[in-house]
Amino acid sequence: MKSIFSLSFWAFLAIFSLCGTNVRSAAKEMPPSQYFPIYNFQNDWLVYNSHYKNYVPFSQEIDEGTRFVSLYIDLVKNRKYALLLKTESESYLFLEGALQNKITANQWQKISIDSLYKIYKKDELLLTVYGSPGITDKSLLLCNEKRTSEAGVIENTRSSFINIKPISFTPFGNFAAISLLIILILNAWIFNLNPLSFLRLINPFEFFNNDPRDQLSKVNKAYSNTIIFFVVIIAMLMSFVMIYFSASSLNIFSLSMILSEKSNTVQIMRDFFILSVLFFVLIYFKYICMVLAGNMLNLDKQVDIIFVKLIQSSYLFYVLIFLLVLMMSTNHINLTAETRPYALLPFVFFYLARFIALYVVTKPPGSLINLYLFSYLCVIEIIPLIVSAKFAL
């Protein structure tokens, strides 16, 4: 009996020693000799909970089959240190939801906190590892390098990222997609309504056509359906550009006083339609002024020609600007403080070039004084732009 008790005691002692050795070895995962360990993140792993829509602490009993584990790294508090990551099986490293690189099994990977802060410019960073289930085979240590080294931290540069992060939908991005859809529908409507006139109006060579027997204004008057729809589209294009400028802190005509805070897509769409109506009214108000001045100067026959060419050139110009702004907004490119002073230069060049081209194309009859007075109608377009440039810059 005594021998049985003694044998059981030694067997229990051996098993307890083995378990203690395993626990101690797991807890004391040692980095390479040139690094001094500061903190072990083994108990800080998180998993995403779809019920709470947030990250919760990893639980061995509940989350043992989870392949994605994450944790937040404080980049400000831990600057001047480095992260050392090792997994026992081939895994993948994600930073802020973007795939960084593949982690080779049983090899330490060094990640510099200073480099992460310089790249992401955030106080806190989400680090995710995808690999085998659980966290027992994963080790992440905060270390201090014993020797001074200026070697790069993340071996792959930012240009080599494979970005598989889901697209984030912003209110302005939703507004851009909806406005693009509306403008495309209106263009398709005009094409079905009058395809011949539509194709001629979007043809830039038609702007320089000064044949009096083949003028677009003979078929398309300022109050015809085709021209009205073109004016609606131009007003929408101008509104879109103005809202983008306002979002980029370029306040033209003090539009920020009538625009909302743009906290959601609905408010931005409301501002879009308000500005569209405003620009539509202003364009036809300019036409009325042109008609009155043309009648006084006996140039009434030239008014429709001038107006149609104004609409044609404005459409072509603002479509190009709209596509450029749409490309910039979808790529989250905003105007910086250095580029804002030059944002209005394309508009100034366009209106000046069109102002000169109208003389060459239309050739209004009459004396020199009438030509001088008629130029007043064209220069009306440039005055608001010059005033807005003064206030914006």
TrEMBL record:
Keywords: Membrane, Signal, Transmembrane, Transmembrane helix. Residues 1-26 form the signal peptide. The keyword Cell wall biogenesis/degradation does not apply. InterPro entries: DUF4271. The chain crosses the membrane at residues 172-191, 227-252, 272-294, 315-335, 341-361, 368-387. This is DUF4271 domain-containing protein. The lineage of its organism: Bacteria, Pseudomonadati, Bacteroidota, Cytophagia, Cytophagales.
